Here is the input.
Amino acid sequence: MSLDDWYKNGWLKKHQTSREEIGNLFAIIERDLQDCAHEQVSEDWRFAIAYNAARQCCLVALYCSGYRSGRGAGDHYYVIQSLTQTLGEEFGELKDYLDSCRNKRNISDYDAAGTISLQEVEELVITAQELYHQVKSWVRLHHKEYFPQ
Here is the structure.
């Protein structure tokens, strides 16, 4: 299914982004990547912050591709699932990993504290940092009109 099919199903909406909006999202990602490194914060919260950075990376790619989430139930799911539609099929494993992180974050945010290990935090932080650099390069290469100066 293409992003246009998702739009027709109501899972996405058309969106015209701007250089300022993408710059603001990159600033959120950079803030979150800094904040999730603070060891005095619980593993659950550090994981949630790193997850947000990774999700925002997916959102940047989605916005640059002319769409945004439909807002509501499934918002995070569709933003993450769009990764293979925006950046390419080679991001399939990463998409699946981020989706599993989404589920873990939901449990630690809504059901039970202390469910995230330090190893899970460290793995997600590294993944989010790598994705940030990949998305930044992708925007610079494919959507330079939105790349912040």
